[in-house]
Amino acid sequence: MSYSERWQELFGPTDGGAAVMSLASTAPEPGTGGGGNGKLKHSGGPWTSASGTAGDLRTSTETSRAALGPGHDGIEAGAAGLTSVAALTSVLTSWEDRLSAVRDECEQLKGSLLSVAKEMGETEVAIERSFKGADGSADKAGEKR
Predict the structure, then answer these.
(1) Which structural domain, as residue segments, surrounds residue 124?
(2) Of 99, 117, 124, nearest to 47 (Cα)?
(3) Residue whose C-alpha is closest to residue 107's, from 44, 49, 43, 62
(4) CA-CA distances (angstroms) from residue 43 to 25, 39, 74?
(5) Is residue 14 included in any domain, yes or no?
(6) Angle of the 45-71 helix axis to the 84-132 helix axis, nearest 10
(7) 51/37 same-domain check
(8) What are phi and psi of 99, to 5 degrees?
(9) What is the CB neighbour count within 10 angstroms for residue 49?
């Protein structure tokens, strides 16, 4: 089977006939019975937004972690001789460690999500360019004029 025959088997005739297969993002809306609008519905927006959220969480976690120490200042002097001082110190250390781990994970996640956003954006641009040159009559969005 030639490449062209395989292409027609998968995607349908190239002479404007109905497509046999389409991208999920261009499939008909449920209940409409019609075809998609032909536009790939991808954007780097959700990935960039998620990266920003991870960055915000990292910042607020660090702010909270940094406030724990000063919040315990003077406890040892005011509660000298009480066994609760050792327990409070242990809890403080435990929470500082936990919040540091969350902060560090959010920092790593922020970078990873931003990398995906960049990669997906670059892929989208490459795909758009490949469609633009397909027949010489496609505009920037990949639609025929």
Answers:
(1) 45-132
(2) 117
(3) 62
(4) 12, 12, 52
(5) yes
(6) 160
(7) no
(8) -70, -35
(9) 13
Query: What pTM value is reported for the model?
Result: 0.52
Q: Output the tens digit of pLDDT for each of the chain's 145 residues.
A: 676 676 666 666 655 555 544 545 444 555 555 455 555 444 557 888 899 999 999 999 999 999 998 887 877 777 777 888 888 888 999 999 999 999 999 999 999 998 888 887 777 777 777 887 665 555 555 554 4
Q: Specify whether 58 is located in the same domain as 109.
A: yes
> Looking up tokens 């609008």, which residue turns up?
37
Residue 67 three-state SS: helix
Give 139-142's long-range contacts (Cβ < 8 A, gap of 24+).
141/39, 142/38, 142/39, 142/40
- Clarify whether residues 53 and 117 are in a common domain: yes
Q: Which amino acid, residue 127?
A: I
Tokens of residue 116, six digits: 């995906």
The answer on 125 and 82 residing in a single domain is yes
